[in-house]
Specification:
Length: 170
């Protein structure tokens, strides 16, 4: 098992591949993987229902708690696309190595088709584009490394991350 000095956190828009890449990076590094959206759903129920019952602010509070628990460990973590909207969540990332995964609208269109993601209910790709544009400056400000997943094989993205993280190993 690899000894990470701190959490490796994947951020980026919906459909950028944070979970798929994160699982593979964790496996390659021999460390646990935590998807905060899945942890929230496991502990509190489906995310669409949480958005409905708690509203976005209530959901973001649950998300902040999940991120705090995850980044306190030397693991690979995938955050939900909107986790970075919360200033407290952003400050939790200061002690982690943060990787921004980006994706073009053309590449993400098939990835989000038929999605049950609450923020995409009304305009699909148009909503995705508006959300991604709004969040882009926040993502960029937090990122220590940025990689595009639009047209590269996931294995190449994973290899790049594993190599980059290797500079942090004791």
């Amino acid at each position: 098992m690899t000894a990470l000095a701190k959490a490796v956190v994947l951020i980026g828009p919906m459909g950028a591949g944070k979970t798929s890449v994160g699982k593979r990076v964790a496996k390659a590094l021999g460390v646990p993987f935590i998807d905060t959206d899945r942890a929230i759903a496991r502990d509190h129920g489906p995310i669409p229902a949480l958005f409905e019952s708690l509203g976005e602010p209530g959901f973001r509070a649950l998300e902040r708690d999940a991120v705090a628990r995850a980044v306190a460990q030397p693991v690979v973590v995938s955050l939900g696309g909107g986790a970075v909207l919360d200033p407290s969540t952003r400050s939790l990332l200061e002690s982690s190595r943060v990787i921004l995964l980006t994706v073009t609208p053309e590449a993400v269109e098939s990835r989000i088709a038929g999605s049950d993601r609450p923020l995409l209910h009304h305009d699909g790709l148009g909503a995705w584009m508006a959300i991604a544009e709004e969040r882009a400056p926040i993502y960029a400000a937090l990122a220590d490394l940025t990689l595009d997943t639009s047209h590269r094989p996931l294995s190449h993205v994973v290899d790049d991350i594993v190599e980059w993280v290797g500079t942090d190993l004791p």
